[in-house]
Amino acid sequence: MITCVVEYVIDPAKIEAFEEFGRRWMDLVDRHGGTHHGYFLPAEGASDKAFALFSFPSLAAYEEYRALFGREPEFIDADRIRDESGCVLRYERTFMRPLLPGSS
Questions:
Q1: For a FRET experiment, which of 17, 24, 73, 94 has its CA 20 to 30 Å from that of 38?
Q2: Which domains does the chain have, with CATH numbers?
Q3: Global pTM value
């Protein structure tokens, strides 16, 4: 299993657009072979940081999902929310290997 952790710097004045962006991507990940663990939005402290975590069974499965970017209309529409609203200022992806309870 591979988990993608995305750290976002967002525009706090555009949090509603970011939430809509997140809802779309949670659905897309889940429908295209992954498991979305949610978006984590500012509550206290820095108001411009957000995170998303989602997993795929393998890096190859993630690459199949990534191949849909820029081609599938639903993916293009989801990115359009980000691009037109300016809710995301920048982001960084990191791939992690989870150690989960009960794993040996």
A1: 73
A2: 2-94 (3.30.70.100)
A3: 0.89
